[in-house]
Each structure stands twice: as C-alpha cells, then as structure tokens.
Amino acid sequence: MSLIKRFLAREKSPHEGGGVSAADGPTVALVGHCGPDSFALAQFVRREAPGALVKSISKQRDLDEALETLDALLVNRVLDGRFGNRDGVALIRALRDRTNTNAPIAILVSNFANAQSNAEAAGAAPGFGKDDLRASAAADRLRSAIARARATRKANEPNSESQSA
C-alpha cells in the first residue's frame, strides 16, 4: 500500500468501525513548522494518539484563536510563519505568561538539549527532536502532555453533580 493510501486510510479510521471520534480525541497543533516537517509530525501524532485532530498553525492570529480548543502544541524551535518573532521558546514563555490554567501543554520540537532546557524553564513539558519521532520516549512525552492537558481541563470544568445538589 502506498504512503498516500495509508495516510488516507488512517484519516478515515477514527470515524469507521470503533475508532475514537474526532470530538473525543485530542487536538494537537503543529506550531511554526514547514510543510514536510508538519507532514512527519502529523503522522507521528496520529500514530501515537489515535483519533487526534491535528492542526497546522503558521500565524500568531490563528494560534490565538485556536488556543482554547487545543490540548497540546508542538512548537518548532525556529518558527516558520507569521509570529511575533521566530523563537519558539519565546512563544512558549509568552503563552505561559498570558494564558489561564486551561492552556494547552506546549512541547518544543528540537534536537538541541539546551533549547529543550530553555523551553522547560519557560513552562514547556519535556520535548523531543524531529530525529526522535520513532523513539518511545517521544511518544510517551506526547501522550503524557495530552493526558495532563485533558485532566487539567476536566478538573476545571463545572461539576454537574455539585451544581444540581
């Protein structure tokens, strides 16, 4: 089966025969990545988080509008697109400083250890490099960030039982 046919089959699978629906699956944004990297990262996310909706974001305005709907952000170290600057770590820091507790979990995508340390100091979850997309540690980090974001969001939702009592 060709790569394109496998991609299209995977796109359909959450909605056909027992998969997680897009409404139930996590929403992950690929922030500031070029086309080829976005394709590779989208494949990684869909493989490791079945049912995930993946959005590619290349403008600050689009990111701002989507923030409340996202579970995780995979942020490029050097942003490709229209952002206030090209520094992914600075974007992570700015988002942390201005968003609430329901903000999506940011993960830096970089092969450089010092960039990863800076991103974590800025509020990101532990990240991974593009070279690590087949490593179990990268998959674990993605799933952990999604789970943390969803647990935080659920904890901050109004409890229907306490409201009716």
Question: What do you see in this structure?
Answer:
The chain is an alpha/beta fold. Helix content is 47%, strand content 15%. The protein has one domain (21-136): Response regulator (Rossmann fold, 3-Layer(aba) Sandwich), CATH 3.40.50. The protein contains seven helices and five strands, in the order αβαβαβαβαβαα. A five-stranded parallel sheet has the order 2-1-3-4-5, sandwiched between helices. The chain starts with a helix and ends with a helix. The model is unreliable at 1-22 and 160-165 (pLDDT under 50).
Supply the key terms.
disordered N terminus; alpha/beta; globular; Rossmann fold; 5 strands
What is the topological layout?
Layout: H1 3-12, E1 27-31, H2 35-48, E2 53-57, H3 60-66, E3 72-76, H4 88-98, E4 105-109, H5 113-121, E5 125-128, H6 136-156, H7 160-164
Parallel strand pairs: 1-2, 1-3, 3-4, 4-5
Q: In the CATH classification, which architecture applies? A: 3-Layer(aba) Sandwich
- The number of domains is 1
Number of strands: 5
Q: Could you give the order of strands across the largest sheet?
A: 2-1-3-4-5
Strand content: 5-15%
- Taking the alpha carbons of the first and last residues, their distance comes to 56 Å
CATH C-level label = Alpha Beta
- CATH fold label: Rossmann fold
The number of helical runs is 7
Helicity range? 40-55%
Structural class determined from secondary elements: alpha/beta
Profile the largest sheet.
Answer: 5 strands, parallel
Report the mean per-residue pLDDT as an integer: 85
Low-confidence stretches: 1-22, 160-165
CA radius of gyration: 16 Å
Order of helices and strands: HEHEHEHEHEHH
Q: Overall 3D geometry?
A: globular
> Can you identify the CATH superfamily?
Response regulator
